[in-house]
Protein 1
Amino acid sequence: MEPGNVTWPSEFLLLGLSEDAELQPFVYGLFLSMYLTTVLGNLLILLAIVSDPHLHTPMYFFLSNLSSVDIGFTSTTVPKMLVNIQTHSQLITYAGCITQMYFLLLFSGLDTFLLTVMAYDRYVAICYPLHYTVIIHRWLCGFSVLACWIVSVLISLLHTLMALGLSFCSHLEIPHLFCELDQVVHRACSDTFLNDLAIYVTAVLLAIGPLAGILFSYFKIISSIRAVPSARGKYKAFSTCTSHLSVVSLFYCTLLGVYLSSAVTQDWCSTAVASLMYTVVTPMLNPFIYSLRNEDIKRALRGLLGRATGRGPADPPR
């Protein structure tokens, strides 16, 4: 690109998955069904937690926040994809792209920090059960979630302001389904050294740091469970962690897959598909993981559906 062509862009072109017109109805239906499933599933989890007094505990308070974040995470990308497919246009305005990038950073950071806080909650519940209510009290829960929001907002704001300081060239194509930070930064014509440095530092903060905390928590949890004498006691103790551990594994495995695919292959389509896994698929599967592997959630959902259909939760089926 010639230095003389530097200008402020009015819009970007998102290349998407495929330009094949015959595939567009299938892709549209797939994204729409996944989005509706994600929103409905996470809303049901939220309603179940709010409506059941037995679930007004720290663990489910954090879970309700995670469900809210997952709805926002998916809503940042999928509606725009659906509009682009419906209108046969892959354009996104400069302001829209920067806004989408900001909220992607915000919700991905919140997901990471909330999963870490939930791991700490399980660590205290299993390793220090007699002191759980003293350590994990209401104020600590509120402060933890507030801290997650503050740090995520600051990180997102930092990257967004730094991206606004870049100069872009004309005919900007983003080989992706949405405006991801790395893709936007590397479309710039100006020097991106500080942006790249900030991205690497943030990667350590959002990935390695929280992951180390989660692994440490589960190392302590497994050590405590091994000390339980009965097999039934071990199963009961670990069963409270299986849902969270499944969500953590899914989130980090898909996130790792994105960066490995981008490092191993230059095929942008493969990288875009991998990105869909943690931005769309993981938020969609989280409600299923918690509802299928958690008896308290299943009981609350049965009660919620029973009230919605006009029967009490204890009423026999007709």
Protein 2
Amino acid sequence: MKIVIIKSFLSFFHHKLIMPWSLDLVPLPPCALLGGPPLSGLLWTVLLLFLWYCYRVGSDPPSHSGMLKSGSGRSSFSRSSSRSPVDPRHSAPKASAAITMEMVEEEEGTESYLTPVLSHAPFPTEAAAESKKLYRALQEYAKRYSWAGMGRIHKGTFINICVVSQHLCHCLINDRPSIQKPHLFYLPDVPSIPFFPRDAHRHDIEVLEASYPIILAEFQAMYQRGIDTKLGWSYQGPKGQTVFPLYNAGVCVASNCRACPCTYRTLLSLRTFISSNSLGSAGFWLLGPGATLGGAYGPTNTRLRCHLGLQTPAQCELVVGGEPQCWSEGHCLLVDDSFLHTISHNGGAEDGPRVIFSVDLWHPNVAAAERQALDYIFAPEQ
């Protein structure tokens, strides 16, 4: 097909453009005059072959010597993972903090599943065990499924390795606000603000607010039985804060869910509830009068915490990224807790505890393929 197209073009070019004026304006060499039509045909054949050669050379994709050639080949980062982790009591060595991905020679015809993503990406020579585990999980996911849509996940994994290893990667994290420091996983290029509008998760917010009366009734029934670890309660952070979890780090707390069946069914009806990985939790959070939670950062910016106010004294305040907000009973707040946040209850004993029902929802800018990958990478350890 390509040859036919080229021949048609050359025929048109010869008859329409060259023939009318070539004999009058362009003097032919003696050899051409002596050769006659056979020599002219030979010249066109050579020209055709030359054009075909140029076409093939231009259409062949260039080779990339920096890509990994085989999925079985290991990068220099993989080899460095066998080293013992750095002892934090000793200062880091002054040697180069990063090395380059090396080309691994394997049999021809094989292509690595890392090829679409990794080229000369530098990785720290020493990384924490958790960072190595995170990267290996991403590799395993890509091997089983695909690297398609994993660009931000891969970049975030690399940032996590650098940060945990205390190697500064200003080229990658200089766009992160200084008041936003998720300590577990940071997904780059995600629009971030301390408080999100209701439209970000309108369906789930409307479901939670419509279920407010039954959720409040189930909480009050449990609260009247008493706060005891034997009854499913747990203490979080400083004195004065207790939690009754329905989901804890992606794991359903069956006994607590049986105690709150309607609330549990409401959770299952949400479209964006993070229920399949350790980044997601849901439950009742109590903060006693006079208690204050100092500045803290959430584990990731891939989620939003939805707070449904159940009992909210006027003296309670939530400050996220320097922006203060107050809860309202029966209404939801969407919070990005990867920003620096503080919580305070300045009321008296007569006000009782502040109570919210907290649910972790996916950040609206995290794509479906990325959610699936994060579910795999951060699968709960049961």
Protein 3
Amino acid sequence: MAEAQNGSAGPQAVPAASARPPATPEGIALAYGSLVLMALLPIFFGALRSVSCAKSKNSSEMPETITSRDAARFPIVASCTLLGLYLFFKIFSQEYINLLLSMYFFVLGILALSHTISPMMNRFFPANFPNKQYQLLFTQGSGESKEEIVNYEFDTKDLVCLALSSVVGVWYLLRKHWIANNLFGLAFSLNGVELLHLNNVSTGCILLGGLFIYDVFWVFGTNVMVTVAKSFEAPIKLVFPQDLLEKGLEADNFAMLGLGDIVIPGIFIALLLRFDISLKKNTHTYFYTSFVAYIFGLGLTIFIMHIFKHAQPALLYLVPACIGFPLLVALAKGEVTEMFR
């Protein structure tokens, strides 16, 4: 989900909560441009990493496959979770709930960021770096009935990445700074696109179609999503200040983009990249088509928000674009059967 504060445009806006000076056109353009760029990075690189992830034999890097049954149930589960959070914020103290959530996402964020930067950091280690291998193994039972619960392999380089990620985690926990929030948000998004795999295009259409209805209902039909977004203090969204040019890094008038508006279309775009590769034609037509469609859908969301100054569910525009554009290409190339096989 995405939002913008103080009545300014954004994929999903929240009404002004305080009387701040309106954002300048330059500040708005910088904020939205940065959000679009930050959304594209985890989708592009997450899709590329999903290809190697699908071929990996390391149990710690195996993807989680989403079936058609999972896809059909996902909007219901998401709705129950959203409503549950809404009721929690209405009944209990917002401060204590956010403290608990901060600790939870602190741990998850460190692990996600460590996994994200590990491939990049490997290039900076010298060739003679003493890199030892480790394995974290938990089993249940004994003998022939022994069953693996956790089997995670890592090395010294991974521990260094974990230490660096912990520094960001402490920074986020103590300051809740928007840069630390974005580092965690980008890591969550990239890991989601990389590790969550749709088993086929039909499943992707079911998932996106269900969440299309979910997003429209909870934004236009109720105030639940907007209320949760305003109350929820966790790195589940990317933010960028619209007053950065005036206040620098201490700016606090944010435009926001929810991670769901990145990960959900992103796993579909990653699926189309793997479909391109399966065709063995040395082209990435469907991947680039869906990637451009995402840019178009996100841009249209921001434009509509800017014109009407009203909350907009981003998936209302992203889902038709990400499904429709590749489908038109498949129709033109006569590959619809292969796509939905």
Protein 4
Amino acid sequence: MKSAFRNAVALRTLPHYHFINPHFHSLPRFSVAAVSSPPSSLVSPSKPETFRFRRRSSPLRVRYSSMTGGETDAPASMEKQFEDFRVKLDEAGSLRERIRAVVNEIESITRLMHASLLHVHQSRPLSEVLEKPKAQVDGLKELYGRLAEVLCECPGEYYRFHNDWRSETQTVVSLLAFMHWLETGKLLMHTEAEEKLGMNQAEFALDIEDYLIGLCFLSNEMPRYVVNQVLAGNYDCPRKVLRFLTDLHAAFRMLNLRNDFLRKKFDSLKYDLKRVEEVYYDMKIRHLANGDSAEDNGTQGQS
């Protein structure tokens, strides 16, 4: 009797499920006898059945919120470390600004020296050309002394700030070497350049690469100088410059240069030597070059 009543109730609820679920026939079939008595809400036709799903919270989210909900401030050790970094960076920035102030004055003097030395291509008297540049050498020595005083505040960090005055120093060396060659016809040695600039201290010396690159800048000026001297009637100048550049090129060949800026400048020295050789060759075939037995007196043949 009880089983018959349960079967009658199950059959009564089947049309209602079929109405609200069009895919009822696709659902898996089950035995009518196994269906239990449904609740009163399902039996009533005036109250359609609604299914609600409650979203469960992710265990990872709960765990993350419990981890981050407590400590929000950074550890004291981290703050102290970055505070030390801030102080050191501020000190380095202030020191670099002082260095750049001195370097700007050095650059200003080198522009004046270079502008005065350009008159050598106009065949002016050598003493007149060198008068103004030589007067600026003492000013350069004073500025490099100030630069050494600034660097004394950070001993052992010469190469940390070296790039701030490197290019200016290379230009200064090239100008000093050109002036020295115009006067003597010889190469300005490294120790002589250090003495002129006051950079002969243990903590503040003239970098060897800066000196070598300055000599390469010197060779870049030689082909133009040779051509202008020939036009001015100084036919012995190509031979003197050719001998000087040949010796300088042979000296550079002793060095094991890497693929860096110095190696590129050395390649330019080779091209400068080739251009001077072409000028000297033209002089020889026109029988305008003097004999190799003539004395090498620098540029005293200028008018």
